[in-house]
Amino acid sequence: MVRHAKKKQKTSKTTAVNVHDTSARLDLLLDDSTKDDEERRLESALFGVKYAPGGSGKGKEKPIELDDEDEEEITAQADGGRALAHLEDTDLFFVDDGVDDDVPMYGEDDEEASDNDDNDEEGSEGSSSEAEPTPANEPSASSTFLSKIKSSKKPAAWTDADDVTVAAGVSLLKGPSRLRKLRQAVDEDVIDTREYETRLRRQFENVNPEPEWAKKAKNIVTAKKHDLDLLSENTDDEAEDEDDLPSSNRVFADTRRKGRKGEVKLPKDTLSIERLRDANQATQNSGSGEVRVASFHPNPAASILCVATADRRIRLFNVDGHLSPLLTTLHFPTLPMTSSTAALFHPSGQSLLISGPRPFFYTYDLQSGTPTHHARGLWGTTFNNLTDGTAILQRRRKRGGDGETVGRGDAEAMNLTSFSPYGDMLAVAGRGGYVHLVDWKSGAGQVIGSLKCSGAAGSAAAGGINGMWWVPPTLSDGALGAGSQSSSSKLAVLSGDSEVYIWDVGERKCLQRWQDEGGFRGAAKVLAGTSSGGGYMAVGSNTGYVNLYGSDSFATAWESTTSKPKPLKSIANLTTPISTAKFNHDAQVLAIASKDKKDSLRMVHLPSQSVFSNWPTAGTPLGHVTAVDFSPSSEYVAIGNTRGRVLLYHLKDYGVW
């Protein structure tokens, strides 16, 4: 401790001596009388002080004209330069940022600016005669900047750096080195911002060429333009505008014009399809169970997908090909959903019918978002009041050995339903081979009639009704003549005995009755038909065969029907019972599937009546398919399976409208 204290004491003394020696040395350096002309010239070059030659130091300089600042500097030098010794380095030096201190800022008045101009003129008159005067017809940079400031009446609240850049342009040489590749000449430096943006876009297109799908889309649109006769006179102007746009904008413009194109003709062997994100990816972790229904909204403008699952819930998704967000979820705990028509859109697209193996049903208004429970069936009318023998058959099955009625009653269930093309009538498959016709237009929900489909010894009662399809009016009017909406409607019914019935709903008359080719009791499973385009009808069986019939099987006048129609094609690509069959909107694609075997789905090209060979592949993760549906314009196809997933695919030939 003692030695440490002595060391501190010695250090303090040494510091005092050093400080004294430094002060004496500084006084010696600042003494101007000891400097010669060479040392003064060196100080002028290093420190920027005025060079004043003299014989012995002070007072020997030549008399020259000096301004106020020069006199102050000479006076400071006359004092030996010690007048600035007490100043800091920050006060002695400054950084020249190129801004003229004489230029007033935005908040100053015009009078102060004019006074500064007068002072500048007086100062220029007192300067050296060697300076060249500025021509009167060439304004200086400071005067131009002042004129811009004086033109503004109000001071700016803030200054945007981008605005300054717009006025000054972009420097290709002084900026980042990567901007030099935008030059068109070696010595090119400053360009305006609009030209800068154009060159950036051109550089991006050079680095990232136009993809093949975009070129294909443009080529298709260009080819279709020559075949369309419905284009307006301003088509040429629109084409010129599209040529001026960047390539990315032209792609989107071409996509929007696809709504005015002609009919799409799919190739025979190859189906252009790509997979998108699953439509129900937002709820895949909810444990919803098997997908029972996957149905698109009938309106092409409303890209809504209805998904009904085994957990008795219905979910509506907004299909956009990317995220497909969930719109709403409906839960019906007392209504099991077992059939493919458990959730059925009305043809108008304003409501949704939810039914199942119960005598009651629900309706959901899409506009107001409110569900309605119809506890007594179709607006208070139950099917057990009909005098068609259905109630008698039900009571016989429900009675036990002691004569007491068991079960939930003798009311009809609503497992299988189908709306007419205009939505004014609802067909409900009953028991014993009956099809009940319900008036859905008046709002009363009256059961206005029934159609009996039965063979000998009540064979249809054992097989039931397995499928219903309303023949489009465009295909039925040619046989029966034009009439009202209800009178011209025809209904095709597939019974459990593999028999097809063609009914005239207006007259309640069976026009045709024939058995499916190769069918037998219990073999028929699915009935499907086209909603528009070519007239096709498909019948699927439990053997995996799908018989494809033409329009003569349902659109021929009943007086001339003398023989059983022959199928156009028997599709035998599946070996397990057919569970799903669906046509697309223009009757060019038929999707058939079986849920009993994994990945059992095929796409049929109807014009050639052949199956697409390129899809699905061995790596397509379809699973056990339970539901298939096409969007109204066939740009999307949704595939549901037993794992609760709804796979979403995009048919490229139809584009995105």
UniProtKB/TrEMBL annotation:
Higher taxonomy: Eukaryota, Fungi, Dikarya, Basidiomycota, Agaricomycotina
Organism name: Ephemerocybe angulata
UniProt entry keywords in alphabetical sequence: Nucleus, Repeat, rRNA processing, WD repeat
Keyword flag RNA-binding: no
Main location: nucleus
SUPFAM superfamilies: WD40 repeat-like
InterPro entries cross-referenced by the UniProt entry: Utp18, WD40/YVTN_repeat-like_dom_sf, WD40_repeat_dom_sf, WD40_rpt
Gene Ontology annotations for the cellular component aspect, listed alphabetically: Pwp2p-containing subcomplex of 90S preribosome; small-subunit processome
Chain intervals with Polar residues compositional bias: 137-146
Start-end of Acidic residues biased regions: 97-124, 234-245
Stated name of the protein: WD40-repeat-containing domain protein
Keyword Transferase: no
Family under the similarity heading: Belongs to the WD repeat UTP18 family.
Lineage top rank: taxon: Eukaryota
Residue segments, region Disordered: 50-83, 96-159, 234-266
SMART domains: WD40 (SM00320)
One BP term from GO: rRNA processing
Compositionally biased spans, kind Basic and acidic residues: 253-266
Record's subcellular location: Nucleus, Nucleolus
